[in-house]
Amino acid sequence: MATLFIDKSDSTCGACGKGADPYEESHITLMGWSAVNDNMKGCGAEFTNVSSHYNFLGGLEDRIEEMRPDLPFLR
Fold this sequence. Notes:
The protein is α+β, with helices and mostly antiparallel strands. It has one helix spanning 60-67, and strands at 2-6, 11-13, 19-20, 30-31, 47-51. The strands form 2 sheets. Strands 2-1-5 form a 3-stranded mixed sheet, with helices on one face. The longest helix is centred in the last third of the chain and has 8 residues, at 60-67.
């Protein structure tokens, strides 16, 4: 189980800290700079909640909650 962190320009898995597809239910696809040499597999952790490293930015929390209404937002 892990927190999905959705930030301004990327999303990361709270379990392994590597790039994640924000629309997947678990960390299946490795995204970003970590996805090299055809290694596109994430750690497999299931996303149980969502958060952001940029909670102080006005409106970002609302957009994240609209994007992932299935996951509770951790403040």
